[in-house]
Amino acid sequence: MIPHKKKHYKGKCPHCQNIIEFHSVHFNLDSDNGEIISNCDSCNEKFKIVTINPDESYIVYGARKESYVDYDIHSASKFPEIQGIINFEGSLNDQKMIFDSKAKPIYLCNDCDKSLEEIAFHKLDNAFSEIIMAYSDYTTIDIKGYGFNPQKAIFLLNIKCTCNKEYSAVFYKKYDHKGYDISDFNLGNIINSKPLESVIDGTMSKDDCMELLKKTLVRWELLFDKVLIITPFVGHQYLSDEKLIDTWFSILSQISKDKAKLITRTASLNKVKKAISDNIHDYNELEEYHLSVTQIDEATKLQASHAKIYCGFSHKHCEIIHGSANIVYGPSKEQITFKSYGTYEELYNKFLHQLGAKGLDLNEYPNNCGKTSNVIFDESMNFKAKQILNEDFEKLLL
Ligand SMILES: [Zn+2]
Ligand SMILES: [Zn+2]
């Protein structure tokens, strides 16, 4: 393929202001000038996008590419031009999940209490070529249409503690055909490690509480259908904008917009929007161009309450962290406790319905999340691809 790079743009339909995203393809050597003749998805009217390499450049959403004009051959069309173009690289929503095996661990050996996390990541490193081979073999099948339509790719790796006790580490990544980097693989669980009830329990620094929460969110993103973050405050009032934004994104990076819901005070949301507007880009404009943070935009209001509740749940299994810690870093001490429950109903009755927040509902279930399909590769079965539904996670992964 000819070396090229893409530039990402958004603009508005000149007829109806519908948001259009398009990518301009740039070659290192020769480039053509011209336009894409487009048809708006919203109003069905025609407009043009003047761009480099109009043949290779393409529309991502908002309109259809009808044809293109190369200005070396033909003159420009009379169609009105796309308006309000902005160039953007990446989105605030595309933050990478972090699992720092050097920070305070949640997965400890049941016998000797040592952390198993570095051993697990070391194993991931060593087994990576086998993992990639299994992933690629499966992708060949998936592309032909014989796959399971998986949401996630899950890998079970055999690991051994320094005391010789054996465990199975569960790594996962979102399943797609986009290729892979080792940092895309997250640690979702170490099966039969020390119960989290006894690991996440006690009084410790805000920093440690945050590390435990961030790792548990990585776990919940794999194991459960939904995640809730309920906290009145994010950061504290003396935090600089930069630190406030970092604090927010250290949690936002750990949750997905499909699963997680944020419930916090309106003042906390307004503060981070202002910090983003003052330091990154005007938040209203980001919102207008669909580049704002989904979790922030869809957050619901926490009424007068100081509850700090973080939970992951499916219909028949729930885990919760609660205590005194807001989303904030620091040396001062907070109390933190982990518990699990057999049903969502129990979690809801004990912790959630009293808050009366919008979006907290007992009728969250039943739904079809349990039937969500994934592909699992077990080292003990030579990484042979198998299907696993979310509703079977409890037997196999928990
Ligand atoms: Zn339009
Ligand atoms: Zn051990």
What does this molecule look like?
This protein has 398 residues and is α+β, with helices and mostly antiparallel strands. The protein has 2 domains: 4-87, no CATH class; 117-396, no CATH class. It has 9 helices and 19 strands. The protein has helices at 117-143, 196-199, 206-223, 241-252, 266-279, 283-288, 294-297, 344-352, 393-396, and strands at residues 4-12, 19-27, 33-40, 46-52, 58-61, 63-70, 83-87, 152-160, 166-174, 186-191, 201-205, 226-230, 260-264, 300-301, 309-313, 318-323, 333-341, 373-378, 385-389. Strands 11-17-16-15-12-13-14 form a 7-stranded mixed β-sheet. Strands 10-9-8-18-19 form a 5-stranded mixed β-sheet. A hairpin with a 6-residue loop joins strand 1 and strand 2. Helix 4 (241-252) packs across helix 5. The relative contact order is 0.12. The site of one zinc ion has 8 residues, from loops.
